[in-house]
Amino acid sequence: MKFIKNIYILLFILSTSIISAQVKFEAKVSKQKLGVNERLRIDFEMNQDGDNFNPPGFSGFTVVGGPNQSVSNSWINGKRSFKKTYTYFLAPKKRGSFEISQATINIDDEIYKTTPIKIQVTAAVDIPKDPNDPNYLASENIHLVAEISKANPYLNEAITVVYKLYVSPKIAVDNWNEIDTPRYNDFWSQNINTQGQKVQNGTYNGEDYRYLVLRKTVLYPQKTGRLNIEPLTLDLSMRVPTNRRDIFGSLLMTRISKTVSAGNKTINVKALPEVGKPVDFTGAVGNFNLDVSSSKTQLDATESFQLKVNVKGNGNLKLFKLPKISLPSSLEVYEPEHKEAVRTNLSGMQGSISDSYTVVPQYKGKYPIPSISFSYFDLQTESYKRLSSNEIVINVLNGPSNNTISSNNNVASSNNKQAVVLNSDQFAFIKTKTDFFTIKTSHFFKTNTFWGLLLLPFLAIPLAIVIRKKKATRDADVYGNKIRKANRLARKYLGNAKKSLGKKDTFYIALEKALHNYLKAKLNIETSDLSKDKIHDLLTKKGVNETVIKDFESILESCELARYTPIDIVTMKEDYDKAAKTIALIDKQAR
């Protein structure tokens, strides 16, 4: 029994020594959920020394500190304890879910890897106060502020957001860059150019500060109720004073990186009043003037003239449609050419939009063009106003008359009438006898058809080889297959859009998908690259006419605006036809 007991003791000692000799290599983070303005610490720890340490790529983060290496050796109760650590300090680049991938190291000719760690980055959070912490000192002396011109605007009323960076004279900012840009999901937005802005002197909370205007944005809310304006977040490199002094008594500065945020802002968007709202109101908000003009009032038949409907003023000019003209059927009217001369500043959109119709009269006479009506919501009086144009009379001097042509047609038809004369040969064209003849039958064996069918399988073998090679070449053509697939998808979505006419949301979603897939096929770009500027540059390089590019961009803009504005089936049909026509023109012009 004593012998067996000693064996158990020996086995226990061996097992514990083996366990203690196991290699450990793991990654530890300070937190798995943090704000975009916080820092993340990650330690890679090992209990045995190793070589060739390879950190992960830290996708979604910026390394602001490290790698810092530390080694500790200790003896406790006769046991040696070893720990080696590589430490990194990371700053998030943006919000979202990220994964710290595996780090590797070579220990005793074996490769060891850490376990991937998931990190959740949220919007900016409040940082705890600590007067001795340089980060706290920075947060107390540097402020990113979003100034909103109006907190309770009407639907489609322009407001501005101006982002200012206030910096105390105690702090020196060396560099900055945006790491989280507001997306303005429920707004039509446009940034105002702020290049060349100079540092100005001002006050913040009653204290002297320097400030710089970083960004100016004009917003038109497209929904009612409480809307959130996402924060702008910056990463700053700066020098902050410490509580230590040099030999001359001056405060020593320390260099740190700091993330600041303007914070979330909320506005309350009011709906336009229902009382007094005109039936033909299409969402125009602001102050406008209406003008309807004709390039000619006297002309001959088959000559053309231009009829122009123009609205100018200050308001959401790009977010509503102009009224349609109604003309007599004797005037041939072509699709209008839409033009925009709109500039955007801190007061909102200003300028004019117009539809120019080409009209061709067919007959002589006088044709009145009825008055056109346009209604809008006036922000100054907070009431609806209606504008009406004057009636225009077009005098067609020379050309055929409607009455003359109809009477000539009647005379011609009456003069061409002839009496029907019956005779005995009226059915002579019907044959009563056949010319059929007897054909001789022959055996199928050894005929030309027999030999042809016999040799056909042998002739099909080389044809099958050629087809197979072409199929293999086609399958290997990854780029070509992508284009063909995207073209099929574009046709599919364009077909779905046509089927969905009358269903606003379904129609414009299908139309937008068709346009995006067409661009992916034509320009060989991914969905993530479908920005307005890049599309414009690529189509221009391919030799597409500027007017066609603007038409394509206007269709995409219509797809976006359709989510927030009322659309009828006539407008949907116009957008569908315009999309098909524009795609055909791009195919024709692109090199």
Question: What does this molecule look like?
Answer:
The longest helix has 29 residues, at 448-476. Strands 11, 12, 14, 15 and 16 form a five-stranded antiparallel sheet that branches. Strands 21, 23, 24, 25 and 26 form a five-stranded antiparallel sheet that branches. This protein has a four-stranded antiparallel sheet with strand order 1-3-6-5, with no helix packed on it. The protein contains nine helices and 30 strands. It has helices spanning 2-20, 134-141, 402-415, 448-476, 478-499, 504-523, 532-541, 546-561, 569-589, and strands at 25-29, 33-35, 40-46, 51-54, 61-76, 79-92, 96-100, 104-107, 110-113, 117-122, 142-148, 159-167, 172-180, 187-192, 200-204, 207-221, 225-229, 233-245, 251-261, 265-269, 286-294, 298-299, 305-315, 331-333, 337-345, 348-361, 365-369, 373-378, 383-388, 392-396. It is of the alpha+beta class. α6 packs antiparallel against α8 and α6 (504-523) packs parallel to α9 (569-589). Mean pLDDT is 81; it is low at 16-20 and 404-424. It folds into four domains: 22-122, Immunoglobulin-like (Sandwich), CATH 2.60.40.740; 134-269; 287-396, Immunoglobulin-like (Sandwich); 478-589, Nucleotidyltransferases  domain 2 (Four Helix Bundle (Hemerythrin (Met), subunit A), Up-down Bundle). Helix content is 27%, strand content 38%. It is flat and about 125 Å long.
